[in-house]
Design goal:
Two copies of one chain form a homodimer.
Chain A (H helix, E strand, L loop, with lengths): L1 E3 L9 E6 L11 E16 L7 H12 L3 E11 L5 H19 L6 E8 L6 H12 L6 H10 L8 E8 L5 E9 L16 E6 L5 H14 L4 E2 L9 E6 L12 H20 L7 E9 L2 H13 L1 H9 L5 H8 L11 E4 L5 E5 L2 E2 L4 H7 L3 E7 L5 E8 L3 H8 L4
Parallel strand pairs in A: 4-5, 8-10, 9-16, 11-15
Antiparallel strand pairs in A: 1-6, 2-3, 3-4, 3-10, 6-7, 7-8, 11-16, 12-13, 12-15, 13-14
Helix pairs in contact in A: 1-2, 2-3, 5-6, 7-9
Chain lengths: 407, 407
């Protein structure tokens, strides 16, 4: 597998662009388009929140009505089109229909996504203007993909895209590209189909919708669903995967090479999300080993990565390691604390809790806590369950960003 | 019912004091004693965390071994004696035994509590010295109760005590007093016996242990268990209730006047906790009405009060009311969002969401969000379930306090 330049336009046959309709106060681009001239097989996961934004409802029904066939997606930032009732549903449909018409693809083949403030109606004239400017900018270039990745940003500091080239088991070369956005309101819930943040993955490999969905479900569990920035779950969380088959050849199925590349793209995008958490100054990785099973390990890893007290300690570079045990205590994971081992750093470099007793909270532990990337390795010695959760620290910046957002 | 001065020493026959052993870096008092010469009936609830601090384990077993008979409690601040293995259990027992010996009460009649940093052994010489100074200061005065309330503080800004006098159904006058501490690491879990923070309630009414426990379980659900400061559950959470019967007369049972007074004391203490949340600048009250049942209403109210994004909006006085709906969406409560009504202020003063549509996020809503006490009233129109949750905003102060705590 080879890491290559670009994002959603790296695979053959995909175009992208950004447009500006005036939805964002900053005056930045606010409409993104992804388009494949060839019809794509699609798979998607959405938020499990009971409050689903209008575009989530519309896109989910569109994918199932169209039996998973799409030509692309139109995305706006600056407004979530959530908590907008029936008018919101109508607006989401109009947004997709307008894009489809201008792009000359069948109605119902453009998926719709929104991100931004909750509880405001979409200013449709601005949306239309943005779509029009995006349509005229569509291109297969890598920079067009990057511009699309910038247009979906809200409080994100950096655009997030990744692409790989992989040789399949049969020798074909295929590409997978992706882009994601999301900074706050990030904490998926572990039930049924769902996801976190807005993520778009394209591939020129010919893949059936059902195999795409299988891959997506499998890797979402271990990547996006293990990221937490602030414990809040969005109304708009979505991941969309599009396969246009431009690489040619027979349909890919149960190919470990494809899955390796697909999983890599999802993992990289989820790490980018965690690193760009609102106000984040550090990436926090929590690895749990030796839980009774994988599900238990996930409970434990997620509880630590979500704890405000742990996150503050990471921000301050303070080796207050008792808080790790505190978070484990109410995680719901079955733990014998007399066997608990915790280390900070790669390869268990600095052990801080051994057999349930704090052994180091001195200078070495403090220096490990002060790094830009902080990793906790937690060994429970109960079984073979492992999991990794990703998050970030809780800083003044998080409070600043979120105490003055709409105003 | 009459609100009176004082705390745990307001009821007849209770003494209290503070001592200083050098456990707190600030040099403040760090040992508190509560004592009744007459043996008390006791009831208690403890954290449901799997990581229970040594004093929680020791006191729970002491209460059940002694069939709920206690003379008092010895409490230290500055060190949680949690994650301290067998040595921690021995230390907790020694702490209680030392107090019992000096006070000349039977061994096993002094409950033990600790609060402070996790993962450090108790410095027993300092603990002993503190107990000795506290024993010599014991007094029935109201100021002695206040000093005890100060000695149990950690990051608390104010001492928290309350006392009431109530006339029972049979005309007897009894008193109930209480003190509590807790500022961060506050978010109880709604399962089985448990509580949050350290709370001590005394009464001179003669009450059986089982009736005390019934009252405690009932009111803990609606008071302490509905408070959230930061979503983290402590290893040391405890509520202890002591009845010494000094008011005389037959044992109180199923007396609505007693329960009214008991519930009032618990509610006031829980409000004080929320108001003194770490870094809190505002009290947040979330009232949910019209849920399918009370349990569903609690899920909804707790989700809103716990959301970091809602808490940041409250801190900033920003009427970003869509976040309230976002938090409800993933609360687990069954909600028809097309019927959702939300208001800010007392008596639904400023409606902001009506039938699922944001109706006001302008100047009036902003002015309501800028008050010291912010209240959201959420009407779900599904059934008759109601609940009230208490919390506070998430400020720079919270991050400051918790990013530099042990160091």
């Amino acid at each position: 597998m080879k890491l290559i330049e670009g994002g959603v336009t790296a695979p053959a046959g995909f175009l992208a662009s950004a447009g500006k309709g005036g939805l964002r106060k900053s005056g930045k681009s606010d409409i993104a388009l992804i388009l494949s001239k060839r019809v794509c097989n699609a798979a998607a996961v959405f938020t499990s929140s009971r409050l689903k934004a209008a575009p989530v409802v519309v896109t989910a029904s569109l994918i199932s009505a169209g039996k998973g066939k799409l030509n692309g997606a139109v995305i706006n930032s600056g407004n979530a089109n959530a908590l907008t009732g029936r008018r919101g549903l109508r607006d989401a449909k109009k947004m997709g229909a307008h894009a489809a018409k201008l792009l000359d693809v069948p109605a119902g083949r453009m998926a719709v996504f929104s991100t931004g403030v909750i509880g405001q109606f979409l200013p449709m004239n601005k949306v239309y203007a943005g779509i029009e400017s995006a349509v005229s900018a569509l291109s297969e270039s890598l920079s067009a993909g990057s511009k699309a990745a910038e247009a979906i940003m809200t409080t994100d500091r950096v655009r997030k895209e990744v692409a790989v080239e992989q040789m399949l088991a049969d020798g074909r070369r295929i590409r997978i590209g992706g882009m994601t956005k999301g900074s706050g309101m990030i904490a998926p819930e572990m039930k049924g189909l769902h996801a976190t943040t807005l993520t778009f993955i394209t591939t020129d490999a010919p893949v059936s919708g059902s195999y795409l969905q299988k891959c997506l479900d499998r890797y979402a569990e271990d990547t996006f669903n293990m990221v937490s920035v602030d414990g809040d779950q969005s109304t708009n969380d979505s991941v969309l995967v599009l396969s246009n088959g431009s690489a040619g050849g027979p349909s890919v199925r149960n190919d470990p090479m494809f899955e390796e590349a697909f999983g890599y793209v999802m993992r990289q995008l989820s790490i980018m999300l965690a690193m760009d958490g609102e106000g984040a100054t550090k990436l926090l990785t929590v690895e749990v080993n030796g839980a009774r099973n994988a599900q238990q390990a996930k409970l434990a890893a997620r509880a630590v990565v979500k704890s405000n007290l742990v996150k503050c300690a990471v921000f301050g570079g303070d080796p207050n390691v008792g808080r790790i045990a505190m978070a484990l205590g109410s995680s719901g994971c079955d733990i014998d604390f007399s066997k608990l081992d915790v280390s900070i750093g790669e390869n268990r470099k600095c052990p801080v809790i051994s057999s349930g007793i704090v052994t180091d909270k001195g200078r070495k532990a403090a220096s490990m806590m002060k790094k830009r990337e902080v990793k906790f390795t937690i060994d429970l010695h109960k079984g073979k369950g492992s999991a990794v959760a990703l998050g970030c620290d809780l800083s003044y910046g998080y409070v600043r960003i979120n105490s003055a957002y709409t105003t």
